[in-house]
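Structure ticket #2291
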Amino acid sequence: MDVIKTSRFLSLILRHEPQKIGLQLDAQGWVAVDELLVALRLHGKPLTRAQLDHIVATNNKKRFAFSDDGLRIRANQGHSVEIELGYESAVPPALLYHGTATRFLDSIRAQGLVKGARHHVHLSADEATAHNVGSRHGKPIVLTVDATAMHTAGCAFYLSANGVWLTEHVPVAYLRF
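Resolution: structure written out below.
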């Protein structure tokens, strides 16, 4: 089993295209582990529960979570399918960071950070993580978000289970380039 390829495929299934293997996520993005494993096997991607446990435990981005009873699984954030993760509003640190590629700067200067097809804009609590995210998309640049000012102005922030900060939109006024 190629852990990286399998993890990427699970991200595709649990965040964007569950129907690709005949699954349907519930309203909060959960699917039964047993259903997932059967669907993967039927679509030529066999995976054991032990292999799935290993992927969830060792994923450096902590993309996946099991339910408290271990019977269901979901992606922690980044969905393009309609779900409600159920995260409660949280007070963010003073500054948050967003890693992107320099080729997106003109659009960001015009619109701010937009969620696009996802449910939220993803922000990091540290510059290093943001830099790593940005480097996946081209020549990286890290933007600084004045999260305190945004929060004071009434913008909601959510902290995902894997430490990613989420918000609906970051207006240009709260960005430092």
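Closing remark: The chain has two domains: 3-75, 95-176.
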